[in-house]
Design goal:
- Strand 9 (228-237) and strand 10 (240-250) form a beta hairpin.
- This protein has helices at residues 9-28, 34-37, and strands at residues 42-55, 68-85, 91-104, 112-124, 127-134, 167-178, 181-190, 217-218, 228-237, 240-250, 255-260, 263-268, 270-282, 285-298, 304-318, 327-337, 349-358, 366-374, 380-390, 394-404, 420-428.
- It is built from two helices and 21 strands.
- The protein has an 18-stranded antiparallel β-barrel.
- The longest helix has 20 residues, at 9-28.
- The chain has 429 residues and is mainly beta.
- It has one domain: Beta Barrel (Porin), CATH 2.40.160.
Length: 429
């Protein structure tokens, strides 16, 4: 579901504690490297600070909401590297910590913190091991990434679902070479589950009925400590970049049940998912597809249902348009979900068209425009993303979106007056 997930403070604190514990445990497995830690072969501290304004031209649909929001974010990253650590069998070691903070002056639900990364990476030749909080991305398509199941959405950061919470994990990856195939096989163990959280009563871009994330219910006895597992094989075979995966554990997509006529709570159950994502490059044309089969997922009607979903499309790039340095990519995709109106996503039968413009100038100026159109109701969601570097240390980003012809039964209906313009100025060091 779009634009309704935020990280509540209680869950943020748990993630900080578990992420830090995982990192500490990883380091404590090698007492012999303690002396070497004091003299790392490489150390770096970098980061990003930003100020963000969100403007809503229309009056709010629900009481308590405002026409604008101003917030400040800070995301430092610290990295230490040690080469050929004897106490770990000669492994190369990288320790990374990347906390994230946001303070919103109007919307308390957007004030939050998270450990995006707090991990130790160990490299033993062709094998890598990761222990701690990390973010793992899977996917190829533009409108949505239905195969991307490892991390929970941090929806407070945007409405596209691309910002994720750090996920505690142990991951083992190994390079695989077989004939013309070159890639990586990965296995994952997730000891702890990150709950999806939700915007509050004063938030714009929220559901009509507020979801109480503090009242989450689990269908497993271990609740958030229910372990999850995943495996993935991904790589290149000629001009094809593809990945196959299987996941078993708590679904990152909750179902919902009424606790009163005006209140919902999320319910988390165990599911199994298999999936494929692929991209074929043919000159200036990219053919993209993602497909999943998921079992035992509760739908919008709170019934368990096995279902299939797929997204497929094409992106063709016109290079040097108008004898300039600019490139224009033309995008067309189609999204399908066999659950239809009972899907937990608004993209169950939608066509997407779009254009990506890259000026290829010294400021890395670019823009992406998409229009998602429901093929049955003609409901339309427009989105524009643009960015440009300002000098060597600053970047300006603009995101605009609008909702037209929303259907009363649609997940977008409560957003019909939430057309918005998001302006972000970021500084890097």
């Amino acid at each position: 579901m779009m634009a309704k997930h935020v990280l509540r403070s209680g869950q943020g604190a748990g993630a900080w504690g578990l992420g830090g514990l995982c990192t500490a445990l990883a380091l404590s497995t090698a007492p012999a490297m303690a002396d070497e830690m004091l003299g790392a072969d490489f150390a770096e501290l970098r980061g990003e600070a930003s100020v963000e304004a969100i403007l809503f031209p229309d009056d709010p649909l629900f009481p308590g909401q405002e026409d604008q929001s101003l917030s400040f974010a800070f995301e430092p990253t610290g990295i230490l590297e040690w080469n050929s650590v004897e106490g770990l069998g000669g492994a190369d070691v990288t320790a990374t910590i990347r906390p994230f903070f946001r303070v919103d002056t109007q919307d308390d639900a957007r004030t939050h913190a998270d450990l995006r990364e707090a991990k130790v990476d160990l490299r033993f030749g062709d094998t890598d091991v990761t222990i701690g909080n990390d973010i793992v991305f899977w996917g190829k398509t533009e409108v949505d990434q239905i195969v991307d199941i490892v991390n929970q959405v941090d929806g407070v950061e945007g409405t596209d679902g691309e910002d994720k919470l750090g996920q505690p994990m142990v991951a083992v990856r190994r390079i695989v070479e077989a004939g013309a195939f070159s890639g990586q096989a990965s296995a994952f163990y997730f000891p702890y589950f990150r709950e999806r959280t939700f915007l509050g009563t004063e938030s714009r871009l929220r559901n009509g009925i507020v979801v109480d994330g503090n009242d989450a219910r689990y269908e497993t006895g271990a609740e958030e400590w229910t372990p999850s597992f995943a495996a993935r094989l991904a790589g290149f075979y000629g001009d094809v970049d593809a990945g196959l995966h299987v996941f078993h554990g708590l679904s990152r997509d909750p179902a919902f049940e009424f606790t009163s006529p005006t209140s919902l709570r999320p319910v988390y159950g165990r599911i199994t998912q298999i999936g494929l994502d692929a991209q074929y490059t043919s000159g200036a044309t990219l053919w993209k597809a993602e497909a999943i089969g998921r079992f035992d997922q509760r739908n919008l009607a709170f019934e368990k249902e096995d279902y299939a979903a797929a997204i497929a499309g094409v992106e063709h790039t016109l290079y040097g348009i108008g004898d300039s340095n600019a490139d224009l990519g033309l995008i067309a995709e189609y999204a399908y979900d066999s659950r239809g109106s009972n899907a937990l996503t608004p993209f169950e039968n939608d066509a997407v068209i779009g254009a990506r413009l890259a000026l290829n100038d010294t400021q890395d100026s670019s823009a992406l425009f998409t229009a998602a159109i429901d093929t049955e109701t003609a409901e339309t969601v427009l989105r524009l993303e643009a960015e440009r570097r300002l000098g060597d240390s600053f970047k300006l980003e603009i995101v605009g979106q609008a909702f037209f012809n929303t259907d009363e039964a649609s997940l977008f209906n409560s957003l019909r007056d939430d057309h918005s313009l998001r302006i972000t100025l970021s500084a890097f060091w």
